[in-house]
Fold this sequence. Notes:
about 200 residues, 2 domains, elongated
Amino acid sequence: MNILFVCTGNTCRSPMAEALLKSKLVEGNVQSAGIFAGKGEPLAKNSELVLREIDLDLNHQTRPIDQDLLEWADLVLTMTDRHKQTLALQYPDDQEKYYTLKEYVLVDESQWQHLKNLYAAFEEKRLSIINKYKDKVDDQEIEQKLFEELEDEIKEIEQREKELPDLNIIDPFGGNIPIYRNTRDELNHYIERLVEKLRDEE
């Protein structure tokens, strides 16, 4: 399996995730990239230091995300839901591969599917309401109708979203060594879970 980790600049979180997974998963291919990354920049110094603390070394140069990388990847794991949303907007053809790392290892597939179904039903009803009233009332009244007629759907989606865990890995960029160490340890925890999941799926 080809696994791609994605963060913002490809200097902190995604390369640390890459190094951690490479140390645990012999049979996979792992790379990392950044949505707003430059090309050929080094690993952040503190990322390098906290990896060395656990005897890991990564010969790393930053690279921006592109279509070739997404086609190479079987699974794209982002550090935040914002990264995932950005990829879905910029590269919609590959969005079935996109998950946040924490979502992929924590969220039960049926739970996630139910939420996707709620989003789809909400959007369908929203468009239907707009079409029903667009020639009869002004925009402000349409907004009011949407709020009234979608109130139950909004409440259910909010409730389901509250049941989901926080799906973001904290960005240590610009922080001190303890902050980078915390991010490394958080990543390590979820990458252990990822390895277990990948082995279960073999």
